[in-house]
């Protein structure tokens, strides 16, 4: 029976020490300021990683009053309490945290939109290309009108595509 006793190793987490709450005085507590695009021009700024000794509701109240925006505190199972604010408030929140809450600027980590690869942005399907050519012949260089007809494309993308591909071929 002792020969059949096989020790099954448990999963090893190399970052367990860094994630532990009592990892010691040497651990730095970073404050993450993120921006997420909702739709079109609307965005959402989130603040995560403030010390637990701070009252998130009081900080939110001051942020809303100071920057004239709406917001809420959300409880996330992985991230803990997260402050969400409407709009791009990254610069405002960072100066507020440094001046009022006394967070060191070096401990602020900024995250922005996921950058898309430029080559994949400029890849248009045959249907999109035909529509751009037809719309260009109708309305000219009114890129915002053309972009309104192609879902998921901005006027800048279409103009860049036109200048790089179509204008050289004609």
Which key phrases capture this entry?
developmental protein, DNA-binding, 19% strand, Translation Initiation Factor Eif1, SUI1_dom_sf, elongated, mRNA binding, 2 domains, transmembrane
Task: Give a quick summary of the entry.
Its main location: nucleus. The protein is α+β, with helices and mostly antiparallel strands.
Task: Describe the overall structure.
It contains seven helices and five strands; from the N terminus they run αββαββαβαααα. It is α+β, with helices and mostly antiparallel strands. The chain folds into two domains: 29-111, SUI1-like domain (Translation Initiation Factor Eif1), CATH 3.30.780; 118-169, Arc Repressor Mutant, subunit A. Strands 3-4-2-1-5 form a five-stranded mixed beta sheet. A hairpin with a 3-residue loop joins strand 3 (71-76) and strand 4. The longest helix has 15 residues, at 155-169. The radius of gyration is 25 Å and the shape is elongated.
Helix content: 40-55%
Major sheet characteristics: 5 strands, mixed
Annotated CATH homologous superfamily of the largest domain: SUI1-like domain
Secondary-structure class: alpha+beta
| DSSP E strands, number | 5
What is the topology?
Blueprint: H1 16-19, E1 31-39, E2 42-48, H2 56-67, E3 71-76, E4 80-86, H3 90-101, E5 108-111, H4 118-121, H5 126-139, H6 143-149, H7 155-169
Parallel strand pairs: 1-5
Antiparallel strand pairs: 1-2, 2-4, 3-4
């Amino acid at each position: 029976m002792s020969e059949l006793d096989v020790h099954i190793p448990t999963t090893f987490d190399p970052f367990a020490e860094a994630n532990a709450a009592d990892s010691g005085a040497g651990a730095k507590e970073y404050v993450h300021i993120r921006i997420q695009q909702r739709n079109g021009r609307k965005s959402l700024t989130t603040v995560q990683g403030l010390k637990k000794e701070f009252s998130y509701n009081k900080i939110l109240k001051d942020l809303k009053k100071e920057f004239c925006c709406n917001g809420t505190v959300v409880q996330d199972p992985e991230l803990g309490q997260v402050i969400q604010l409407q709009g791009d408030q990254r610069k405002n929140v960072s100066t507020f945290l440094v001046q009022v809450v006394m967070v060191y600027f070096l401990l602020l980590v900024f995250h922005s939109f996921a950058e898309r690869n430029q080559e994949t942005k400029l890849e248009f399907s045959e249907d999109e290309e035909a529509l751009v050519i037809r719309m260009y012949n109708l309305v000219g260089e009114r890129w915002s009108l053309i972009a309104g007809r192609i879902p998921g494309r901005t006027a800048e993308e279409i103009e860049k595509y036109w200048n790089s591909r179509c204008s050289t071929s004609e």
